[in-house]
């Protein structure tokens, strides 16, 4: 059988050479502010990171939040719908070599003091819920936050 190019008018995205799984959280403090972190000084995101071998997404989310913010007092409200996107590449563009599957959870905390432990995520701050979407760097992260915004109270 000979394969021929079929023109459908649709553009096919490149197939990534790597697929990774990450987990993180939307953390709400007592004042109703949302935790955001700065990665490598170039992009703002919700706290998240790769799963370690044998680690469940919820465990990874709790660990990543602690590493990227110093927050250890977390109360799980609910899991959120996972989504996928390309990794952020140079100049905050998309790195189409890596597709990320992201699991997120909604948490509350009584802690306000932020003390990041991860040198690749040296800055963390509390942001008003209405300002989070505009601050996030990746357009898929913005869309995800917008889709769950009504769940934040």
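Q: What amino acid sequence fits the structure above?
A:
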């Amino acid at each position: 059988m000979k394969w021929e190019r079929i023109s459908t008018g649709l553009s096919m995205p490149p197939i990534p050479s790597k697929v990774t799984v990450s987990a993180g959280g939307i953390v709400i403090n007592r004042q109703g502010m949302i935790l955001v972190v700065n990665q490598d000084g170039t992009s703002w995101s919700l706290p998240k990171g790769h799963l370690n071998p044998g680690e469940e997404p919820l465990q990874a989310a709790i660990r990543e939040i602690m590493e990227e913010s110093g927050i250890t007092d977390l109360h799980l409200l609910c899991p959120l719908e996972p989504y996928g996107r390309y990794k952020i590449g140079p100049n905050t563009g998309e790195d189409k070599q890596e597709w990320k599957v992201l699991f997120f959870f909604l948490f509350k905390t009584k802690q306000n003091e932020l003390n990041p432990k991860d040198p690749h995520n040296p800055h963390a701050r509390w942001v008003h819920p209405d300002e989070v979407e505009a601050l996030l760097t990746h357009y898929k992260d913005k869309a995800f936050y917008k889709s769950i915004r009504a769940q934040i109270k």
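Q: And what stands out in the fold?
A: Helices lie at 57-69, 129-135, 139-148.
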